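Example noted here:
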Amino acid sequence: MKKYTFKVEGMMCGMCENHVTEAVKKTAKAKKIETSKDRGETVFTADNVDVEAVKKAIEEEGYKVVDVKEEECESKGLFSFLRK
C-alpha cells in the first residue's frame, strides 16, 4: 500500500474538493481520500496507481497538478502492534 499526495492548484471551494475527489475515485481504487482546498492537495492510499492517469483526470476537471509525492505506508489495524 502506498500513500499518494497530489499538490493541486485551482481549488477554491468545497465543490472543487469534490471534483478532485471524484476524479481520484474514477481512476484509482483508493482506500481513503482527503482533499483540501486550504492545503491545495489531495491525499489517498491505494495499491498500484497509474499516477499519470490520476493526474490527467484531475487536470481534465480544470485543476493543475504541480507535484506528486509517493511513499510506502504501513497499514495500521487494531492489532498491528502485535506484528513487531
